[in-house]
Design brief:
The chain is an alpha+beta fold and 412 residues long. The protein folds into 2 domains: 6-256 and 274-289, PPM-type phosphatase domain (Phosphatase 2c, domain 1, 4-Layer Sandwich), CATH 3.60.40.10; 342-411, no CATH class. 40% of the residues lie in helices and 26% in strands. The protein has 12 helices and 18 strands. The protein has helices at residues 40-52, 62-86, 134-140, 146-150, 189-192, 197-206, 210-223, 263-276, 278-283, 295-338, 382-389, 397-411; strands at residues 6-10, 20-24, 28-35, 94-103, 106-112, 116-121, 124-127, 157-158, 162-163, 172-177, 183-187, 230-236, 249-252, 289-290, 342-347, 350-361, 364-376, 392-394. Strands 2, 3, 4, 5, 9, 10 and 13 form a 7-stranded antiparallel β-sheet that branches. It has a 5-stranded antiparallel β-sheet with strand order 1-12-11-6-7. The longest helix is centred in the C-terminal third of the chain and has 44 residues, at 295-338. The protein is elongated. Bound molecules: calcium ion. Calcium ion is lined by residues 33, 188-190, 228-229, 288.
């Protein structure tokens, strides 16, 4: 039987713990990507999912579902702040949340952070959420392209998350319509940052089964190195009013019992895994960091970006100039070498000495007539004539002159 909806999560190849969480229920589907501190990220995403999960129920209208989602996210935000208050060691933790509630052929969507929701319709994947990231701001203001954003060194800087920073975070909400046959993909940036949109769309097209599709999506990220935690939720739309995943499924850190006071035991788990894989400590991506959404901060980041851009341009220009002067130097040296060579050939029917080499560079000959003798080529013996016509090399001018002498002697 083809499974309509499912959720999956993988720690990835580099990180020591999974800070992502995912939920696939009957009406509600969510991903959350936690961040912050040595024990905060996994707590934040798990807390958020567990505090939102209770709204997984049928709704009269999509507006009711929007309201339920929005207040559940604000509640989760409040709970995160409370938890930090009780456990100050978790200060700075936060989480993205992207979720949908299905109400028949409509979806209520709520989103904050850089996890993503995509619609797959008839083989085409379309992103419906907008990343709340610094680089997305740069894209929106026309400073960089989407391709540049994908590889930007500050692409993980988030402008908005749930956490202990803002009491009333700005949450994007939206009502979407959906058709039978649509599939919705919710994922953390551990998937969208390492598998192209085209490839994600292809996988959904190839795998009608939600669980297999998720496995294939996660495998693709693992094949690409999976430096980050990878989480995906797939929601299929059929004729039934809900998209049940066959009982509520929690994945990632939400699937484990919460233990946010046990930071010491977490550390003892992490240390050996880092020692076992010393490289992973070096290649691990920089932790996602959250920066409050202040204009001052944005301007500082933009200024830094502009400075880097100027610096990159200068480095590029100096590099180009160096390479160009190297090429010109080699060409000059090569040309000078050719001009130290001579050969004997035919010019205007006379035997002549040429300075340079026989080859041409495109339309430009690398030789000039140095001296035209009064020996007529037709006066030579057939053997000598053929040799002169096919040119005779001379390493220097005296040798060329002695070849002319020999040919002259032949005539006497
Ligand atoms: Ca992530």
């Amino acid at each position: 039987m083809t499974r309509l909806s499912a959720a999956g999560s993988h720690v990835g190849k580099v990180r020591a713990n999974n800070q992502d969480s995912g939920y696939a229920g009957e009406h509600l589907f969510v991903v959350a990507d936690g961040m912050g501190g040595h024990a905060g990220g996994d707590v934040a995403s798990a807390l958020a999912i567990q505090s939102i999960a209770h709204i997984d129920q049928p709704y009269e209208s999509v507006d009711d579902a929007i309201e339920a989602l929005r207040s559940a996210l604000l509640e989760a935000n409040h709970e995160l702040a409370e938890t930090v208050f009780e456990h100050p060691e978790l200060a700075g933790m936060g989480t993205t949340v992207s979720g949908i509630v299905r109400v028949g052929d409509q979806l209520a969507l709520a989103h904050i952070g850089d996890s993503r929701i995509y619609r797959w319709r008839e083989g085409t994947l379309t992103q419906v959420t907008k990343d709340h990231t610094f680089v997305q701001r740069l894209v929106d203001s026309g400073r960089i392209t989407a391709d540049e954003a994908a590889v930007h060194p500050r692409r993980s800087v988030l402008m908005r998350v749930l956490g202990d920073v803002d009491l009333t975070p700005e949450i994007d909400v939206e009502v979407l319509t959906t058709d039978v046959g649509d599939r919705w993909l919710l994922c953390s940036d551990g998937l969208s940052g390492y598998v192209t949109e085209t490839r994600m769309g292809e996988i959904l097209t190839e795998q009608p089964d939600a669980e297999r599709a998720i496995q294939a999506l996660i495998d693709e990220s693992l094949d690409n190195g999976a430096p980050d935690n990878v989480t995906a939720v797939v929601v299929g739309i059929d004729r039934s009013p809900s998209s049940s995943a066959g009982g509520p499924v929690m994945v990632g850190s939400a699937a484990r019992p919460l233990s946010y006071s046990a930071s010491t035991s977490k550390r003892s788990v992490r240390l050996p895994s880092l020692l076992l894989h010393p490289l992973s400590a070096v290649t691990a991506p920089a932790d996602e960091h959250f920066e409050p959404e202040s204009e001052e901060f944005l301007h500082a980041l933009i200024a830094e970006y502009e400075r880097n851009k100027v610096r990159r341009r200068i480095v590029w220009l100096v590099g180009v100039l160096l390479i160009a002067s190297l090429i010109i130097g080699l060409l000059v040296a090569g040309y000078q070498w050719t001009q130290s060579r001579y050969f004997v050939g035919v010019s205007n029917g006379q035997v002549a000495i040429f300075q340079g080499v026989q080859q041409n560079i495109g339309p430009f000959p690398l030789s000039t007539v140095y001296f035209e003798s009064d020996i007529d080529i037709d006066d030579l013996s057939p053997f000598s004539r053929e040799r002169v016509e096919s040119t005779i090399n001379a390493s220097d001018l005296p040798e060329a002159l002695s070849i002319i002498d020999r040919l002259e002697n032949e005539l006497d």
